Amino acid sequence: MPIYATEVLTNPAPAAVCVSRDNFLILQIMMAATALYAFPSLRHLPGWNTGGLAVAALLHVAATEPLFYAAHRGFHGAHLFARYHALHHSNKVPTPFTAGFATPLEHLVLGLLMALPLAGACAAGLGSVGLAFAYVLSFDFLRAMGHCNVELFPGGLFRSLPFLRYLIYTPTYHTIHHTGKKANFCLFMPLFDRLGGTLDPESWELQRKNRAGMDEAPDFVFLAHVVDVMQSMHVPFVMRTFASTPFAVRAFLLPLWPIALLFMFMVWAWSKTFIISYYHLRGKLHQIWAVPRYGFHYFLPFAKDGINDQIELAILRAERMGVKVVSLAALNKNEALNGGGTLFVNKHPDLRVRVVHGNTLTAAVILNEIPKGTTEVFMTGATSKLGRAIALYLCRKKIRVMMMTLSTERFQKIQKEAAAEDQQYLVQVTKFQSAEQCKTWIVGKWLSPREQRWASPGTHFHQFVVPPILGFRRDCTYGKLAAMRLPKDARGLGSCEFSLERGVVHACHAGGVVHFLEGYAHHEVGAIDVDRIDVVWEAALKHGIRPV
Ligand SMILES: [Zn+2]
Ligand SMILES: [Zn+2]
Questions:
Q1: pTM of the model
Q2: 89 CA → ligand 2 middle, Å
Q3: Residue 493 lies in a domain
Q4: What are the Cα distances from residue 78, in Å, to 73, 75, 86, 177, 492?
Q5: Per the domain annotation, does 494 fall within a domain?
Q6: Which of 21, 278, 56, 17 is nearest to 144 (CA)?
Q7: What is the pLDDT of residues 120-154, one digit of tens each?
Q8: Which ligand is nearest to the CA of 76?
Q9: Nearest CA to 341 among 318, 308, 389?
Q10: Claim to verify: residue 25 and residue 133 sit in the same structural domain
Q11: Which ligand ends up closest to the CA of 184?
Q12: Which of 248, 305, 408, 474 has the fewest CB atoms in 10 Å of its CB?
């Protein structure tokens, strides 16, 4: 669990500060170049010398560690802290970059301390190029690790091997220093805090708790899938920064595309469902899992069974973990694929985990976007799961629904579901011409530019079609896919759900969250229960889930 992930995302460092984050690299290069210039023999070092490693390790423990400790405590004196070290501590929430975020004087001190073991090994005639790289890179890695804000060490490690507590610090250990500023001053070895009497005794208990937070089982799972090869790079474990902004195709993705393509074949062949991200709501862990399949797989007839197997495996895994609700995203609940989740519920009648498509709330979001006073709408995809529910709901409100479908049989089936007095409000249309005068279009099926031309100027296109239609008409407006904003107390939202703003999720995801928060006992699979549209909408608002 990121120890303070929420704050780091809401309090980004000012831009001017970011610029100076890598300047120390230039300083270190200058120091190394000076050394090479002053001691020409350094230019002819061998590739590797094991004796040099021993000398450097000895000097690191005997000199670099204690000297860093002393210097760090010195920098916490009132005078030096205010003028120098306060900058490093201004990042209350450390990130790996915080490791390199300090004033030039501190970097000079750190650079010299880092050079010391290398200089010692060279002076003993045991220096090597390999040692220089190994030591500097390990040093840098450990600094970044200590500031990474994610607990990496297994929870039980320091209990079973207590001596390790004095040899290696942890991200939790250094975060305690960043927040409290009174303990845990060491470079990498807590031994020196112990010797100096500045060790926070809670460090390992907290480390264990932070780690346990990462290992805890979720209560809610949103089971997504990858959209396409480009989007597959929009996940925190590939690029945290990129994943923290809404997805859009960017130039820097292009050279990475072949690698992502290769990755696609690998996950298709070998992978099972994996975790993409998570957040906390009302003290409960919510995770987003991805089925290792991409959007186009869902359109390959021979891939259908494999996809259902993957979803079933994920649901059964969730069942074993004690997850309460699994919400199926996007194409994972496709009617043609598994009847909107019905397949799994029928196959496993004793499931304790609730399987939810969340589309009742999707319908509610679309319906609530239709302005009051609307008397007539035109709808494509009208006989789909969402189309049917929207049509039946609207005809109850005495709104005339022109349902675009060539199948009279499917139309009549839906019409018969409406109460006798409402049936007159459902009208079958077979041509786009019929919609020329209607300014409210609800689009559930892809529309070509030619088809969009039939809309009169000023028409608004509401949509529930995936992928969304392209806005060809400048004189019309286009709605976005139904989405809702998670409650304000959602914590740790480090990444964006596809192209949505951070904290906003697709309506079906929100529908699953409502299902969990309300503790509904039923599975929400198959056809949408029109009577429940208002119920879930009210429940969502009650829990602070808001329309966007
Ligand atoms: Zn620090
Ligand atoms: Zn400090």
A1: 0.70
A2: 6
A3: no
A4: 11, 8, 10, 16, 34
A5: no
A6: 21
A7: 999 999 999 999 999 999 999 999 999 988 888 98
A8: 2
A9: 308
A10: yes
A11: 2
A12: 474
